[in-house]
Specification:
There is one protein chain. By secondary structure, the protein is of the alpha/beta class. Among the domains are: 48 residues; 168 residues, no CATH class; 149 residues, no CATH class. α1 packs across α3 and α13 packs parallel to α14. InterPro entries: LRR_dom_sf (IPR032675).
Length: 732
Amino acid sequence: MERPWDLLPELLLDKLVRTILSTCPSLRLDFLSSFGSRIHSSAARVLFTCLEVEDDCRMFNCSARFQRSCVYPLLSNPSRYSHIVRSLIITNPIHIANQDQNSLDIQASVPLSADEISCLLRCCCNLEDFRWESSLRPPDGICELLSTLNLRLRRFHFNPCQLKSFSRRTVLVKWDAPSLALLSTLPITTLSLSGLSQAGTRAFARMLSDIREDSFLENLDIDLIWLDETICEAITEAGKKIRRLRISTNGTKFNDKGLISIMEACESMEELTLADVQGRISRFMWTKPATFPLALRCLRIHICETGPNHSWAVDHLDSLHAFPLEQLSEICISRRPGLPTIHNRTVIHEDRVDSVVTLKPLPATILERLRGCKRLTKLDCDFWSISISDLKVLLESCPKLENLKICLDAPFAKLLGLASTFATLSRLHTISVSINYEHAPGTPPPTALPDIAMSLSPGSEALILNRKSTLPQMDQMQTQTCLEKDTGDTSFPLLREVKRFARKLPKLELLEWYGKIGRGSWIVKRPIHNSKNSFNVSVNYIPPSISVETWEAIVREDQIQSFFSHNSSWIDKVRPGQDWTGEQAKLMAASLAEEKDEGVETTRRTDRTETRTRRVLSISTSSSSTSDINMPSTPNRNSVSPVDVYSPSTSPLESPTSSRYGYRDLGADSPSRAPDHKRSPSEPITTLQRFEQTRNDSGTTVTRRAKPGRGRGRGRGLRKVSLDEGQKRIVK
């Protein structure tokens, strides 16, 4: 007898099974063993294609918990399930209130050992994607295991979870990644790295230098503190095939020269994303590149709204008009709000706004350049506020626009009044706007929470929050007219006005008023058949709600925080097998030691050469001018890149102590004493400065008389220094 689900297409069946297992994870074993071969195959694809494993030894040691997890059938019958696994994710442990009753068992939990991780990797013979999201560092030899056991690996992600509730000490735990360079033996196409230490950054540069032009790298996502010119040069060497590049940094090493080298060398780049970039990018950055990638179609710049941001973090936007915006199909200059909190089922938004990113009007230079963006299909520009007149210019200048997201400096009713202007955009299907507080009086409706079951992965453990979430009931989804009568919200548009607006736009599907004071969204539906009657349109209102991505971040943080509150010592525990040992580890250590010795020897040789050169000064005394003496510049060792000495990309013949950029291009952590530095009143005067201050017009310098009883100059009186054209001779 044929069962009903046997008639369903495979994709639809998988979607149905995924929904059921997400809602009721306890049915996993039943779906794998009790409902026939078709349900078994679908459940296996849903459960094992993307496998999530907690970084907790109890997954293997506790028999009850082990049998409930997806790891149990994988290890028990690897020949049946191992070939299905394509993605493996190591996450932070999760505290489950109704299961982890034994506090001693919780305190006894330790991270997964290197042997247990090796066992998992050995079972996943077809693994293509490896993601590390645990807050603890992985075993130092994890990359050697991947390069040996998983030859089909294409994507590597190291993004340790960092909670906003973590202490500063916890967040600063970085990974040295000694075996990262071994990934160069794999055909990696996607690489995502964050939370690397200074040594880990050097390992990343070593990996890029090893692959060079043989790189398969297409997607690169980095969030590094030590992102300096040397790293950028290594990216250009291995970035000939990079199509999507995402850069994020909280450090101050990322400057114009590094970004320019990337823009000029990565010719295949199609998407560039700068997310919360602090660095030292100057105000005129976008006027400096000689060329831009011809294939570039997408530019995204995200700025954190809550900060903290350096005062210069958004200065480079002043020269954004010099960017070739006309060749782009997607432009995104957006602000990223802080993660909201939930208290008693009420969403509380973060109201704090950093002073650097306060809302300002759209610059006239940017508006003028947007006039020529005829290819633009998606515009996300809520970093600046846009007036009604500027919005009209944008709508008239971008005929291919499909998705529009802006911050409107006008009431919402003014937007609905532009229906005739919007009607010229035959492809526009999504409009999202946020409104300034001054243009939206009244109280917005409460923000709804999405269904928790939809945000969980069926391959993970059941997640239970201390706070429960519910979907808005149908009686809460009232019409706009009723809502306005109940709350007295004069900013809320009437339903008939929204319908009148929707009829003018032939492709409109979503009209959204988002933000902290958002009023919700309106879904526009039209008949399936081709009807020439534009009045046959239905509009459904949905109350404001947080996005699925935001909800997942809130849920994950709540779960992890719950675990740490019951097991605060877990973050300080040492992983069994953390150290990297073996033949490859010895070879890598020897290579690093050799590079370090070569760098130190090169530094000493360069210092001796520069010292001999500085002994003979060319000082002119033919004129009585009081101009400063032209002294040779002294390299500043503290301003040198932390990876210059040890990076293979640095030639042994190149001095690692010679900075290739001036003091103004350095970060905030550079020393205050540098070439062309003006001494502050509180800074002690140096010998050279004293020499310059006491030089007289005749070319003779008189030193100060030594005080009686101090120093070796006692009783010697004054000394005259004669300055000739080609040399300096001291006459005692």
